[in-house]
């Protein structure tokens, strides 16, 4: 009997080992990385070792050892697992102040396996995880102002012209004297500069200067490098993407799947700010604008029914009550010499001015952000082609966005800037099925005939790629 039990245990162990090997082999780490960015990176630290809004995910499978099915159920619906009375799930829920985890019922078991494989790879160091953002690639075009140099050169040329005219007059006088002719009287400075020759030279210089200025301004038309407008909400990328390390694609999820990167809806903001109600820098001032736009009552933690039809006076009452209550709890939201009533009135005026304008009279409705990056209509640019296929980091075009409190346009986004990037950027062929059709380049790389393939090599500088 004991031998049979030993054999059964050994067989069971082999089955578990085989299953774990099968899962690890079948798991797609790259897909897991994309799924992690899209679903988990907002609340869980990307280094997998430190807690964030949620617990560190490194070693999660070990903590749920023997409960893989329950772990998958936790991802699908954590509240259902807590309701079942599982002790570990309940303890985890209580440890993080009963913060509700967003349910992911749409994720399949294989999706969760891919995410777990990516988490384990980053945690153990087997894979690089999320690379450190660097603003590599083509450098930002530094516009040097040569106007002073041009004016100095123009002045020098003018002096040389005057000197040459004086020299010519002297030579003519010497020639006339030698030939016994009467010598012409030297022209005065006024006569020289008003002569037909000088007037012709001046007109020619003005035409050249005017043409240069016109062409230069036409080339720069629409370019907004350095543009840094105020936004209706003081959203800090340095705080969200830098300090809290929220992945860019969590908010701008269109970047990996469509032409546009998309501006996140207030629903995305609420994934965090339903729990985080007072900011570290502005207190309630900016977060309350999100609540007022979407109709969330922070006093009751519920969305307001028929909010779109609510009058401004009732809306004002709700959010003034919230600001006042929060101010009484903490004075960090305003200066010490500003009283509660002043803070409440000031913040309400800011909410109203930020969420309404000449064309949007109601507070309710989407936040109207000011667009910063805007390409001409005749230019085609696809975010997913660069992000999902080319594996280009956001910082390459947008600069060190994780350090910007207030976003500005980093690059010129000119045609020359794009072409320069395409000529320099190496295509990441390894493990990218999109490029399997370039057999010749694969063969040349293997044989050592070439050491890299650039975007230009695969047609990245062809006119019709960007101007269709």
Structure explained in plain terms:
By secondary structure, the protein is an all-alpha fold. Among the domains are: 19-124, Cytochrome c-like domain (Cytochrome Bc1 Complex, Chain D, domain 2, Orthogonal Bundle); 148-219, no CATH class; 275-368, no CATH class; 414-468, no CATH class. The chain is 51% helix and 1% strand. The protein has 21 helices and two strands. It has helices at residues 2-26, 29-39, 60-63, 68-76, 78-83, 87-95, 109-124, 147-178, 189-193, 196-219, 237-243, 248-251, 266-273, 284-294, 312-329, 340-355, 383-389, 395-398, 415-424, 439-447, 463-466; strands at 296-297, 302-303. A two-stranded antiparallel ribbon has the order 1-2. A hairpin with a 4-residue loop joins strand 1 and strand 2 (302-303). Mean pLDDT is 82; it is low at 1-25, 129-142 and 332-336.
Uncertain runs are: 1-25, 129-142, 332-336
Q: What name goes with the CATH superfamily of the domain at 19-124?
A: Cytochrome c-like domain
| Terminal residue distance | 77 Å
Gross CATH architecture of the domain at 19-124: Orthogonal Bundle
Strand order in the largest sheet:
1-2
Classified by CATH, the class of the domain at 19-124 is Mainly Alpha
